[in-house]
């Protein structure tokens, strides 16, 4: 049985159709096992015999749209990919805190500009520290003391398109812990 995390784009927990229990219900309705959620922003873990993650992403997104009216995207990463990302310690010596966010942006497709990242228009509050090819994840540090962080998502979408989703590294660690339990 394969263990996966689905990171859903555009989830607003205040929307009744986007609450964790409804999200879990869609996954359970698709026949997945050991479905769970991690924090309230569209992170769902599950087990499945399926191995084609692109097909899983499409199937889940179609069900979310049909059953809950959620138009955002679904990006899936296996437990092994997330474990490798965390084990690589991409933010050595840094701690996620109110002033400094350590963030992971998952991309659906491999970007053409690896390893040279777009810098045009990148907010000064953002430092790109690397790219994890196996997880297709851009790794960045946000300086929340700088008002330029508000432009981070705009810059990401302009640089990599809208088929992405961003989580804090802390959320990735929590998700992995849930997958390993």
TrEMBL record:
<protein>
    <submittedName>
        <fullName>DUF1697 domain-containing protein</fullName>
    </submittedName>
</protein>
<dbReference type="InterPro" id="IPR012545">
    <property type="entry name" value="DUF1697"/>
</dbReference>
<dbReference type="Pfam" id="PF08002">
    <property type="entry name" value="DUF1697"/>
</dbReference>
């Amino acid at each position: 049985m394969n263990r996966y995390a689905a990171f859903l784009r555009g989830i607003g927990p205040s929307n009744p159709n986007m609450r964790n229990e409804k999200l879990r219900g869609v996954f359970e309705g698709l026949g997945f096992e050991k479905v769970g959620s991690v924090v309230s922003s569209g992170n769902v873990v599950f087990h499945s015999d399926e191995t084609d993650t692109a097909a899983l992403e499409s199937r889940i997104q179609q069900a979310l749209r049909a059953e809950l009216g959620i138009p955002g995207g679904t990006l899936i990463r296996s437990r092994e990919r997330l474990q490798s990302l965390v084990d690589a310690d991409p933010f050595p010596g840094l701690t996620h805190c109110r002033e400094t966010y350590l963030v992971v942006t998952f991309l659906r497709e491999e970007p053409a500009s690896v390893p040279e990242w777009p810098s045009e228009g990148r907010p000064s509050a953002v430092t790109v520290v690397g790219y994890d090819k196996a997880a297709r994840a851009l790794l960045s540090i946000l300086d929340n003391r700088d008002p330029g962080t508000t432009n981070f998502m705009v810059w990401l979408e302009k640089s990599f398109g809208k088929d992405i989703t961003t989580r804090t590294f802390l959320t990735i660690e929590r998700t992995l812990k849930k997958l390993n339990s």
